[in-house]
Amino acid sequence: MKLFYSAASSFARKIRVILLEKEVPHERALVNLWEPNDLGSVNPLGKVPALQLDDGRVLVSSPLIADYIDAKHPRPRFIPQELEARTEVRRWEALADGVMEAVSAVMYERRFHDEAKRSQEWFERQQKKWQAGFAALEQALGDREWCVGDGMTLADVAIACHLGFITLRVPQWFPAERHPGLTRLSRRLEERESFRKTAPPKA
Predict the structure, then answer these.
(1) Which of 64-68, 106-110, 130-134 has the lowest mean pLDDT?
(2) Boundary (domain end) residue, out of 72, 106, 134
(3) How far apart are CA 69 and CA 44, in angstroms?
(4) In the chain, pLDDT over 70 holds for what percent of residues?
(5) From CA 59, how far away is CA 68, in angstroms rounded?
(6) I need a surface site. Which of 84, 93, 153, 169 has the fewest CB within 10 A?
């Protein structure tokens, strides 16, 4: 199988981390989303990550890709099989992804529109989403070492990957002192080899 990814995408980083942690053989294709590319021939949505399977089918969203990889290569498990635990991991992942989507929306807006064309009301709406998301994740994590259960799951990976990008590019949007649990979790995971190998570029 072949993974199409962007070096800066925290959604693609989730998949890259899982593949490394599981030691799954795979090809990689680095895509620069800001330059002309052939990604559309693989993923009609033009987004990363995209995973092309050996039979030619293409998976086009990080939750779906993670689910496929975890089922096909179940050691170690990142998504529990038991319904309640599985639902919890997916719930954490969805909230973390939603936070990142709100942050990304504002960053793209600032990249492509000059200040006169930006909507302050729209910015504040997105800001409320990520602030509320951070607060909910922090409260749920508390003093626990892991989000769900007694080991690393996709929930932890999603949070750490997204925070890795946010704290690098827009650290003012994530005040670490207000979120000690999330900060602790993120910093611990960033020490793992899989995270070091997939660290996002500074610019």
Answers:
(1) 106-110
(2) 72
(3) 21
(4) 97
(5) 9
(6) 84
The partner residues of 3 in beta bridges, in order of sequence, read 28, 51
Q: Which of 10, 3, 2, 4 is nearest to 201 (CA)?
A: 10
pTM above 0.85, yes or no: yes
Structure tokens at 76: 């170690």
Distance CA 194, CA 50 (A): 19
151 and 90: one domain? yes
Sign for the CA dihedral angle at 172, 9, 6, 122 comes to negative
Whether residue 202 lies inside any domain: the answer is: no
Looking at the structure of the chain, the number of domains it has is 2
User: How is the beta sheet containing 58-59 ordered, strand by strand?
Assistant: 27-30, 2-5, 50-52, 58-59
Q: Is the pLDDT of residue 157 over 80?
A: yes
Specify the 3-state DSSP secondary structure of 167.
helix
What range does the domain containing 13 cover? 2-72
Contact 21, 76 (CB under 8 A): yes
CATH number at residue 14: 3.40.30.10
Interval 9-32 mean pLDDT: 97
Q: Which residues of 148-177 are buried (b: 16+ CB within 10 A; e: fewer)?
A: bbeebbbbbbbbbbbbbbbbebeeebbeee
